[in-house]
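To whoever is covering the structure queue this week,

Two jobs came back overnight. Logging them here so there's a record in the thread.

Job A:
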Amino acid sequence: MRVRLQTLGCRLNEAELESWARDFQARGFTIVEDETAPAELIVVNTCAVTGEAVRKSRQILRRAQRRHPGARLIVSGCLVSLDGGATSAGTAQAFPLSSLLPTSTPPASSTVASDGLIVVNRDKDRLVELVLAALGLDSGLPHPSATNAMDLAAPLFARGRQRAFVKIQDGCRYQCTFCVTTQARGPERSRPLPEIVREVERFQDSGIREVVLTGVHLGGYGADLGTDLTHLIERLLNETAIPRLRLGSLEPWDLPERFWSLFADRRLMPHLHLPLQSGSDRVLRRMARRCKRDEYIRLVEGARAAIPDLNLTTDIIVGFPGEDDDDWRQTFELAESLRFGHIHVFGYSPRPGTPAAGFANPVDARTRRRRVGELESLAHRSRLQILRDQIGKTVMLLHERLPDAFEGRPRSGYTPNYLPVHVHSAAPIGEGSLIQVRITGLDAAAGLLIAEPTGVEPMAPECIEPAQA
């Protein structure tokens, strides 16, 4: 039986999709990557972090209906966990698609399934098991152990076949007033540390060269287990030989002083995504954020002093209720001074059920759009400067075969600090090779560094030296 899996949203969603792919494969199913190819099961991992994410999730579901008439649709993720209605724990429950697609028209063909299966976030780790049981497909199929499932092929959907996402925790204990994820994902739950170490080891044994740790509240890892993220990273660096370890988004208040010392091991990549959200303390208080403006600045200064060639990226919400001209000026000026390598700009989108959705003094749409445009222009200029600063440096590049193109050009991989590079090389370069390259230029239109191999043989991870200007 053929299964098509699709996701949008965060890296955690991608990590979950990878896990489902391995589970389906271990039970004898064929994973279909081509969206137009026939499939009997369609699994969609939805997102609801913004109104736009909800729109895109519904668009994917409608497209799946059109392209796969008669296929059974399985929907999980934050959209259905918030809007799909109550479900019993530990079940994959049937639901009418009209409940998720309220504006959709009746299907033209009677062969299109009128209902699907919903698996809410709290049951995601058992999605394959629950779906097969609900469809009566579990009898006679192998029930592999987690170890056997990990022995399957490299990731199908992650960003590059040599990179894998590892989910280390789920849920969040904080209540930022704009955030719907806490409702959708529930309380914090951390995976046992030895289990994570074993998963990274198995990825390494299967040829994966880079692992990205993901979670809803990554920095909160281990609070329910008597440990913490710093200890987990230490264990991974000491007990595995994974060439590259990368971190997902981290809340700025979660990082202890000893965290920076971890980056002395060059296998921990010098890229941090630290959400700022606003540069105004007044707005940050209304958001119920736990890091003030000056605290964030000191954190960035400490990180840059400790981590050579750090690339710092962030999230900023524009047009939060009550954001006046002075608040906006503070945010813009702070973003300009901190020189982010990338800014994920969110125009504020009220999410039902969040405190901020009922706040007074909403920012009008025209002002919000103008501010978004101003910040996106600043972000573009800042990123180009970060890219220009790399020219002339020699770095280790993980050469990847990526499934898409970047502005019409193939991306050859990423620098340690997560900047995209295209390598000009007369000789073929093996997928998954760690090669030394010299950054020679910049394709500004594509936002892409240009590099060439130095002729130095690929190096063992423990031999990698810091980039030199």
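Job B:
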Amino acid sequence: MYPPINKESSDEKYKCNLAVSIYENSDDVWYLATNMDSKYAVKEYKKRFIIEEMFKDLKSNGFNIEDTWTESIVYFKNLYLCVSMAYTWMIILGADCSKNKKSKIIGATKRIHNKIVRIYSLFTSGMKWFNRCYDSSIKKYKLKFDFVL
């Protein structure tokens, strides 16, 4: 990542920094208007982006947890436990896909500027691998795991 470009504007009451962050060999540019130091703002925004991805995985992109309407706290606690375990398992499967070169099978990588880049999150890669193994009627793809509580 290139260091952020910092443009400062100050007034008697307000201070505003514009942080422009560009990753090497990437077309994505982040423009962040902030009252914090530019490097700190980029670091904090990266954390927020990871959290937003997790919410997306738990909601519309994966488990559709928002479609569950309940007033029972016991039901919600049990659901949350199951979803947390499943989410962790999908992340582990996604990491295993990346590590063991299964990413080509599910199309999880793409060549950009002569570098192979992962285009799916670990969760999405794990879900795709799980679905491929689950739907495999000829048992061509198998999930290998040990699950101990």
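Note for Job B: Residues 80-135 form one domain.

Please reply-all if you pick these up so we don't duplicate work.
Q.
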